[in-house]
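#data-curation
PF: Archiving a pair of folding outputs for the training set. Convention for this channel: one message per protein, sequence first, structure tokens after, nothing in between. First:
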Amino acid sequence: MKQLIIPDTLKVGEFYSNDQIKYSLEVANLGGIRPKIKNNELDFIVLITSVEETKNSVRNPYADKIEGDILTYTGSGLQGDQYISGVNKRIIEQKVKSVPILGFLKEGVNQYKFIGFLFLLRNYQDYQIDNQGNLRTVWLFEFQIFSKIPVLKIENFNDMFFPFYNQFKKEILPEDTIIDSLLSGNKEDNFILPKINEETLKSIETLKKKLLTINPYELEILIAKLIEHTGFNNVEVTKKSGDDGIDINALLQHRFSFDLNYQFQVKRWKHSVGRKEVANLRGSLGFNNFGVIISTSHFTSSAINEARGIGKSPINLIGVNNLYEIIKETKFTL
């Protein structure tokens, strides 16, 4: 029988077994969220994710997803509505104090790659359809991954984590932590999701699931057909690369108006679109062009403020709810 080697360090990119994580970090051996309690206080959290995705397709649109340096993670609880309680509540503690969260990515049987420190950007309620076809509310957590860290000694993560935590807190703006569906003035602890007809919500979720499983370039082609269907002319999908971030070009013509050129970005994202993406699109627009971002996810408050900025060219933001309404009103067939 092979002897278990207990590591005394963690290195980004290195693989560890479940038992190595359990015994070296002294956490539970089951579950995706594994808190370490020391002297009745939360010492750190081990968070394990499994990204169920190939390069161009997604089998499960509700699976956790890493996009760039952002991890979108679904809270604990496979059936029924999720609540901010139990291990889910532990994650929220990082908002008010320096709690290290150690991220591991499962990439094979009993193979967990250490990906670095995780910093909670935002958390919010959303809807999902379970495998029985029932609508439920879940909690989504969006983390920024800090992978450029030195080798960690397994003793006191707080000393190493604290400088990164302070840097993160200084750089993040309050409006970066809020998404569009939370802009109701409610405090987070008392937040209630907007009341929408359940059948409509199921239809929106069905649309989102379908869009998230489509190849990104094929999604651009589909959205281009929708844009043409709604009355635009000369609709063209750009090349897959070298397009300065523009996915679709289109022309809007009306007898009472000058011809208007529009440039679209299509983002098949699970994490929220932020201020940076809006500003980048504005910088990519050609002369006298209007910009639109169409996303399968949400928009942060900072993205919305940037899109509507006084003295700036407005950028229109279309999320999946808006997309559903456009498809329904124009009777577009997917």
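PF: Second:
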Amino acid sequence: MRRFCLGLALALLPGAMAAAPLSLRLPGPATETARITEPGASYRMPLGPWQDGRVKTRVAEGTVEQVAWRIAGPVSTLDLLAPLRKQLQAAGWQVLYECETDACGGFDFRYDLLLMTEPDMHVDLGDFRYLAAAKGDEVLSLMVSRSQASGFVQMTRVQPGAVAEETGLQPVDLGEAETPPAGVPGEAPDIGAALEGQGHAVLEGLDFASGAARLETAGNPALQALADWLAANPSRRIALVGHTDASGNLATNLALSKQRAAAVRQALIAAGADGARIEAQGVGYLAPRASNLTEAGRMANRRVEAILTSTE
């Protein structure tokens, strides 16, 4: 971890097109708890409250950088956000949207965000603030919250024009799992038949790293098949249920599994599905379909299932 007593500086990544370095001063002694940088990625930045089952978003593409900090000592969320907002505006950033807890949409808004998990980023569901801003083609969002002893800040920033890096994938022997994933990612499954006949269907081919909610699989056939089925059956409603492997504690995995379901919900909406007919839930590691003793089994358990909730 890196310690910042007065401030922090975020410089451009190598390969990015020209954009002014961003320097912000955090309110108090701060420790960087996590940092994720993804070249050639996209971010759906919320620009409104959770309303009618969805959040208005703006899609930004480029190098997505997420950074979280813990601020020592008790501090209010207003004291966390206000000085950061002032610094951003002084640096030429335009605030596009800002909200506090209930005005944001409370629980649903928070779990529609792809935030880092505990203990790196803590969010009190009764006290958080959110801000979205833009400067030219660059976008940035801030989420702040607190515990009794500390404040927490997460920044998500997208810089366009960065050179994308190759994504390295290591092959996994699915035979090691007691119950390997069924289906082939490259084939569109008959999602509708499974939902109508069995009441549920696993969305195969989704790629979640351990401890992460970011959906890494683009153009997934199962997602498109589900979006098409929802469009063809406007009276049907579904719940997306996220699952995790058994790494970590239950409370963290319950939150993570719901974040995974929320990520899939966002992808379905982007594919044309009606978000008002889709809810996102999570059960953590409580419903495995494979042994957690192997990497292949843990990979199989990191999944999202669609559940038919219509009763007629």
